[in-house]
Design brief:
The structure is a homodimer of 210-residue chains. The first copy, chain A, contains 9 helices and no strands. With 210 residues, chain A is an all-alpha fold. Chain A has 2 domains: 53 residues, Arc Repressor Mutant, subunit A (Orthogonal Bundle); 144 residues, Tetracycline Repressor, domain 2. In chain A, helix 4 packs antiparallel against helix 6 and helix 8 packs antiparallel against helix 9. The longest helix of chain A has 25 residues. The N and C termini of chain A lie far apart (70 Å). Chains A and B meet through helix 8 and helix 9 of A and helix 8 and helix 9 of B. The structure holds a DNA duplex (30 and 30 nucleotides).
DNA sequence: ACGTCGGTGTTTACGCTGCCCACGTCGGTC
DNA sequence: GACCGACGTGGGCAGCGTAAACACCGACGT
């Protein structure tokens, strides 16, 4: 009766589904995003989802985009947390470390969301145009690029070494995150894990500047 | 009827299922290992599989073990392919590169098998004993350890730097493989991919030696 | 030679899933 | 006040993994 939009039409079902998806995926990962369970948790018939998403895959990808956004924010917070009173070189270095460690920390503390965030957004073989690598790359990637450019600006990374440095960094950091969430590093003591993560990140960064 | 065991009892259904699993997973990955499709491809009723595996998961893990074996062999071949007429230091370095590039090459050329090979073998939360990292680690891992020890023996890696070097290397190589098979590097021109892989591997190796 | 028995594959059935089709129901607009 | 497009419902289908009961076979003990 007041302004309540409760009865037949849902206020914004699409947003509600994505939100519920985040809640479910937080524990259980992508596997927890059943179309039926998801709609059930919003109090709606399974088929209602088809008014807003082509199929289950599209729904999962929408939730994945939201999860990826959370990842980007976590990394950004970590980057912005480095104090700016240090000298520029040290600051650029700490920001690069922050990008990597933020990625890893997010993966470990929110493995369900992380699993979603790294899902490739476009399915293979849809449109004809060969999607450029830069096209299908995510917001978190931009943070890495910025941090690396900051290293060049600060004079601690030569432009020559800058080339393709993003892939070396991303490979290392992403690989560690995968080993820590799905692989043999699962369930390592948090203190040991943090120390190891820092060591690995420092190793790849040191590999950039011989 | 010489030695033909064809009629009612299957010769060795377990092995046949694993073999068929490898064939199906080669294209289609772990998702192609449906219990029904798998048993169908061997010409047997779905439930027949339950005489040899507790559930679908156990069957997939058995196929995964076989895939992991292929990965280890691919890496070993690559390692053994480095000529031994060079000086020991160069040889140790090339063997380490071979381990990493073998891992990456296998992932790219056999993505279906690779997806299986990196599946964690033990499920979380089964037996109480906290499985040591070394326990649940795979044959491919041993090759990496050996290559790194070889670097120390050759005198191009100090024992101090040797500590935890395996995780830095594995993270980088595994991360690149993941980006190349499931991530944004998917479908890169083979020549470009190889060049990038070599660059990334060289970067992490150079990070090991100050 | 015969009965028994454990290992193996089949049959039937249950609950679950994603998805399609036809229908009901609402809010806004002429 | 009737129409219409957007949205959610209801019923149904094929497929999945899995459980329980049954059929068949080889081997072994007496």
């Amino acid at each position: 009766m007041g302004g309540e939009t409760r009865a037949y039409h849902h206020g914004d079902l699409r947003a509600a589904l994505v939100e519920a998806g985040l809640r479910l995926a937080r524990e259980g990962g992508a596997a927890a995003l059943g179309l039926r369970e998801l709609t059930r948790s919003v109090g709606v018939t399974p088929n209602a989802a088809y008014r807003h998403f082509a199929d289950r895959r599209a729904l999962v990808l929408a939730v994945a985009a939201a999860a990826q956004d959370r990842l980007a924010h976590a990394m950004l917070d970590r980057m912005n947390a480095v104090p700016d009173d240090a000298n520029p070189a040290e600051r650029a270095l700490q920001r690069l470390r922050g990008v990597g460690l933020g990625y890893i920390h997010f993966a470990i503390s929110e493995p369900g969301w992380f699993e979603l965030a790294i899902l490739t957004q476009d399915e293979p073989g849809d449109g004809e145009p060969p999607p450029t690598v830069e096209d299908r790359v995510a917001p978190p990637y931009q943070l890495l690029l910025d941090a690396l450019d900051g290293m060049v600006d600060a004079g601690i990374l030569t432009p020559a070494r800058r080339t393709d440095a993003e892939w070396a960094c991303w490979s290392t950091v992403h690989g560690f995150a995968d080993l820590a969430t799905r692989g043999p590093l699962q369930g390592l003591e948090p203190a040991v894990m943090d120390r190891l993560a820092a060591h690995v990140v420092d190793t790849i960064i040191s590999g950039l500047q011989p």
